[in-house]
Design a protein that fits this description.
This protein is mostly helical. Helices cover 59% and strands 6% of the residues. The protein has 2 domains: 14-77, Arc Repressor Mutant, subunit A (Orthogonal Bundle); 82-126. Residues 12-80 form the HTH gntR-type domain.
Length: 131
């Protein structure tokens, strides 16, 4: 079963909370190509929310290419979106790098030092020093 958490106190609508969490599970590889998602009704019951809200989340995921819904069979993680997922992950990396560059600039880190730090961190991760 999916581990989805919704909050009524969030400024994000519930359907967006659901779709963003499922999107993150797909992008991280926790949900894999062809994997079946709970039915709209099952997820609504589990989360104690409206079927309409869950349906809207699934429609958004389908529109964005993350899932495929088959009438009478259910919804499945899309298999044809590998390049799309890669682009989404690259956009996320760009966002994180933008934050890192801004932080480095505020700390007075020169561009060459930032490159050295990126190489160091990358090498440590590649060789298992950081997990």
């Amino acid at each position: 079963m999916l581990e989805i958490i919704v909050s009524n106190s969030s400024d994000k609508p519930i359907y967006e909370q659901i779709s963003s969490q499922i999107r993150a599970l797909i992008m991280s590889g926790e949900l894999t190509e062809g994997e079946r998602l709970p039915s709209i009704r099952q997820l609504a019951n589990t989360l104690h929310i409206s079927v309409i809200t869950t349906k809207r989340a699934y429609e958004e995921l389908e529109r964005d290419g993350f899932i495929d819904s088959v009438q009478g069979r259910g919804s499945f993680v899309s298999g044809g979106n590998a390049e799309f997922l890669r682009e989404e992950r690259i956009r996320n990396v760009e966002k994180l790098l933008t934050q890192a560059v801004a932080e480095a600039r505020e700390a007075g880190v020169r561009k060459s030092e930032l490159h050295d730090l990126l190489d160091l961190v990358s090498d440590e991760i590649e060789h298992g020093a950081r997990a």
